[in-house]
Amino acid sequence: MNATQAIDLRSDTVTKPDAEMRAAMASAEVGDDVLDGDPTMRELEERAAQLLGTEAALWVPTGCMGNTIALMLHLQRGDRFLVPRAAHVLDNELGTAAWLAGGMPEPLAWDAGPGRPSPEAVTAAAGSQGPYYRLRTPLLCLENTHNAAGGAVTAPAEHARLVEAADAAGLKVHLDGARIWNAAAALGVKPAELTAGVDSVQACLSKGLGAPVGSVVAGPQGFVDEARRVRKMLGGGVRQGGVLAAAGLVALNRLDRLHEDHEAARELAGGLAELGLRVRGPQTNIVLAEVDDLQTWLTRLRAAGVLASSMDGCVRFVTHRDVSRADIGEALRRTAEVAQG
Ligand SMILES: *Cc1c(COP(=O)(O)O)cnc(C)c1O
After folding, report:
1. In which family does this protein belong, per the annotation (predicted)?
2. Which of 54, 145, 230, 339 could link 218 by a cystine bridge, Cβ 3.0 to 4.6 Å?
């Protein structure tokens, strides 16, 4: 890292495919995945399903498409769905939950902790099934880790209580697990423990693991069969996708390195706190710093060679595979200059 090169902490999506991943992509065995299947796609989907503890999985180009497909399958036009406030499906997916899936969101407060509604709040918001002229609420959409809450995790016991509350009210559960791998790493559990009881889950391969593209949407075989049809409708059916799935397979072999990003995030948060910033304690790889003038901070950080983004009114720093611990130290030195004005 030379002195003038910017340290990119905007997102873990900036991680780039390295030589190992590019080699795997170059030598991937492929077929026509729309016509009759691609062997590397199949391998990735089986591996993802195994890790997520679901019957089947489907590769999709993006996490947004994975969430959209799930919402389209779980909702009919005009249905209401419950979702924690500031969820990605609400704030960062251009309204597709309404535009494409026809859903009306009911945002839930984080009354159980950062990013987490309580099971009681789910029960209360779900209400009871009424007569035919009442609004229907068939879905609870959860997010683990919760991005806007600073990568906050929901532990297996709390997840189980939320699923139980949804079940009791007759709601299906979709889990936006874009960073479920980070949640599992932080909690020291298997990813499958965080999907218990859900009807579908979306997980990203392109965050912190180096894959250039790809997510999976997973669930029972019948759900995945339907998801494959909707993916084609949305223009997401790809031909020799094995070239992309090969990158995903390499990514899934790297899950045990995510704790390094979490350690880097703690170091960064500690350093920012020493500079006098109010930091929301990182649980995974996302650090939120509360500042008085967000835009000024972002502009001055950029000028000092630290790229960050904004989230929930805070400066958001995300640690990832392509920033070293030395980079974190340098980012803190540069941020100190900004803090001193
Ligand atoms: C990144 C992300 C997604 C999907 O993002 P894509 O850019 O479409 O891959 C979905 N949910 C959450 C919580 C995310 O952080």
Report:
1. Belongs to the threonine aldolase family.
2. 54
